[in-house]
Design brief:
globular; homotetramer
Chain lengths: 214, 214, 214, 214
């Protein structure tokens, strides 16, 4: 009786998905807000303008990295909800905590690009990414335990395995990449970016890879 | 005849829900906009960077508190619309006034964290939260009176009771917490935060609590 | 043949409605971004803090006015789409131009509150509102001409009459209110705000008014 | 087996469309954030206020141009998804890269309006627009190759031809416009704006043009 309210709360998935897309959309454009057109009093030549533009490149790269990271987690979140058809109060809150760490990504990314040679900045960035992975993993296993997933038992086992392997694999890779900062911070960053691009750019082999499943 | 326009207006619930999710998503990320990467001209050691990062902690906590508060009201709003299937012009406006006080939460939260020892800051924060509860309560009772709710009479009575109890209970708790500021402002804040977390972290007992309803 | 592309473009209404809700949600929170917590170095008493808070009141009022104005046009837009079930390329662009003038409302409102005694500021605000009304009117008549509306001929005539009367009536009222600025700017503003509230607060008589239509 | 995760990811189109609308909505209002009400200490006459307002005109025009550009690509994106009914991981990422260049439009537009006489600024703007066209073209052809499109073969051929012709035609026009900057930058800008308006204002002949398709 006491938990009556908690039992009626948060049973739909549409609202979760809409607010997630909203937060992701804002987070994706947050670093753009920082890229201001430089105002120069006197501007003589095309060369000078090009030079001024190049000073923006670090911010553009930071924006690019943040966007890719967010894209990876948006895609992962979207994939889970392809199969989740019900929800409850707790699942709502797991999603909200996920969003909490999503909306902080532009900050941790900008922090990393500002202090690229510091282990502490790499640590904060790594922590953010690892937490997102953990929450997504918890999210799926909670949905699974509560029978919110619209899959046959057999399919479910396969999808669950694929999702868990992905989280485990990527967490290990990110941790390895972060640990490289004890050898060389630049190497660490390069490996981290390479891992990100790898997850995004399964895009590259689009046209020559045959699809094997239906 | 005169009210012809008012009678045709605002009959769907989808638009209300979409704009609510939009406003919530923005409000949830508003305080993130304030967390800027600190720029230091010279940065010698990891220790210094860690110190600089720690100066951001109050802003991060303020962001966290604001996010939790917004999450609580987003979940409450979402829960009501699980059962509301029709709408009219007035219900739209009740929602808009709800959103008005939602979008101001990041401000009242930041105001509270800046002036944490002042009764006036606690009062403003308390007022904001109480108004949100009252509007949600009005929202449900208005929807109920106009038969916008898709529940059998019996279920409706139960849900209505649960919603009203929740609003009353939380309003009393918040008021009690706010009144503690006459004894000690820090105690008051602590109790307020504890109440918030309690409503969010019905999350904690996720895995050991058996679900009693279907 | 030449217009082939234009003929396949923009046939759904869902995307229009989603982007509209997005732009409205952002516009509604735009002025909140301006309300910063005042930072005071020394803060002695509750009285001082209250005083400082009161300096924010003009910004809060400006935010409130902007919100109400946006709410009125969001509700009007939502109402039209309750009946519009198809779309084409042109209707998409009418909506985009509508959004152009929606997103500028926070600016014209803030401009008005900053220069409240100036006819020019009242004129800009009035122009913004009148243009929104005109575009909404064009929107409905265009949708009507192209048979995008899901109503019987009889119902359509009634709804069209109600929509047109509302646009005409409100445009006249706003114009009258704006013209009062030649007598006294404060009177003009007061009347404008009163007209806004009147359209929003058909809310007030919620509980004592019997609904006459089904 | 290895690609198991990639094969289950991103199969729905709703999430893509929602996040796209979110990013577009934010990008559309981004330049509005830059238009601040000018604060004047002493303000004597209506004339002075009008003068001050006129200093905002370049920003308003920049906002207008950015909005139109975004509107064109939003409409094009929306049109493609009218026919695309399935998706996969890769299509999600093509969309994300599309959004990356969408969210940067307010910046490239503002950059252009600040440095309107510079070939470099025109080049950056042109590059942004061309990339958006190319990605949209890739988007359609990828969706087509993977049979994500809900059209009969015959209809598909027609729509594909229309989409490709539109991308090719507009890319050529924009390139021509940009090349004019070697003769005269103002001429180049004027032609670019004219091309934009032409794509938006197929709006103009609304009322006198008969629709030829059903």
């Amino acid at each position: 009786m006491r938990n009556n309210y908690n039992q009626i709360a948060g049973q739909r998935t549409t609202r979760i998905e809409t607010i997630c897309d909203g937060v992701f959309a804002i987070a994706m454009t947050l670093l753009v807000l920082d890229i201001k057109v430089p105002i120069a009093n006197k501007m003589g030549s095309e060369k000078e303008l090009t030079k001024i533009f190049l000073t923006l490149v670090p911010k553009l790269l930071s924006y690019f990295l943040s966007f890719i990271t967010l894209g990876i987690y948006w895609a992962a979140h979207s994939t889970q909800f392809h199969f989740i058809e019900k929800s409850n109060r707790h699942l709502n809150w797991i999603n909200l905590f996920f969003l909490l760490f999503v909306s902080i990504i532009p900050f941790t990314t900008a922090f990393l690009s500002e202090y690229i040679t510091f282990k502490f900045a790499i640590f904060i960035y790594w922590l953010n990414i690892i937490l997102l992975g953990l929450i997504l993993s918890l999210h799926w296993s909670y949905a699974n335990k509560n029978h919110f997933i619209s899959l046959s038992e057999n399919e479910n086992a396969q999808v669950t395995k694929a999702i868990n392997r992905r989280v485990l694999e990527s967490s290990l890779l990110y941790t390895l990449g972060a640990l490289l900062s004890f050898i060389n911070p630049y190497l660490s960053i390069l490996v981290l970016i390479f891992i990100q691009l790898n997850y995004a750019l399964a895009l590259l082999p689009i046209f020559w890879k045959r699809k094997k499943t239906k």
